[in-house]
């Protein structure tokens, strides 16, 4: 599989899962550590528009702020540091993630909006969980006034306003069956 080249100022869906579908997060502490490592390695290199951490996979919606090589190396450092810590904690060895992180270029604003909703709805569609209360998704960040590194204002502008952002998330989302959104 040829990997898409990442380009500065472009938007991407970044995702990966555990090798053979195994869990990459066993508890909340793992997820918190992953988010801290994400900030450590990628702060200022990417802008984050949405994320969701499920037990066996994750999704990020990002824009590159620097060149591809720098971002790819930062992601590599993130995944390596997280895998080493997770393996130590769980007394396991070997690869944790599938070979390469997946990346899909987002071609237009409509796709970007749909993907943000898709990422936030992951808990609902994978485990029938209430996505509005799911702790490891950026959805609650948009409901809050707390300071954040998520591109809250830019995302809300993309949806028109806060009310439309919430409305779009609460609709039956048939677009999840579109061919360009997949696991």
UniProtKB/TrEMBL annotation:
Q: What is this protein called?
A: REP element-mobilizing transposase RayT
User: Which Gene Ontology BP terms does the record give?
Assistant: DNA transposition
Q: Which InterPro entries match?
A: Transposase_17 (IPR002686), Transposase_17_sf (IPR036515)
Domain of life, per lineage: Bacteria
Q: Which residues cross the membrane?
A: none
SUPFAM superfamilies cross-referenced by the UniProt entry = Transposase IS200-like
GO molecular function terms attached to this record: DNA binding; transposase activity
Q: Which Pfam families match?
A: Y1_Tnp
């Amino acid at each position: 599989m040829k990997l898409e080249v990442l380009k500065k100022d472009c938007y991407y869906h970044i995702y990966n899962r555990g090798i053979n579908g195994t869990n990459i997060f066993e508890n909340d502490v793992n997820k918190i550590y992953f988010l801290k490592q994400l900030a450590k390695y990628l702060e200022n290199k990417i802008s984050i528009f949405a994320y969701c951490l499920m037990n066996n996979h994750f999704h990020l919606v990002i824009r590159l702020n620097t060149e591809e090589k720098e971002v790819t190396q930062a992601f590599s450092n993130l995944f390596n540091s997280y895998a080493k810590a997770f393996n130590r904690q769980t007394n396991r060895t070997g690869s944790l993630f599938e070979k390469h992180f997946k990346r899909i270029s987002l071609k237009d604003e409509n796709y970007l909006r749909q993907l943000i909703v898709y990422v936030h709805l992951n808990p609902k569609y994978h485990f029938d969980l209430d996505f509005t209360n799911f702790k490891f998704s950026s959805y609650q960040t948009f409901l809050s006034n707390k300071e954040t590194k998520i591109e809250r204002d830019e995302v809300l502008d993309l949806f028109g306003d806060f009310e439309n952002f919430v409305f779009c998330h609460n609709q039956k989302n048939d677009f999840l069956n579109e061919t360009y959104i997949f696991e």
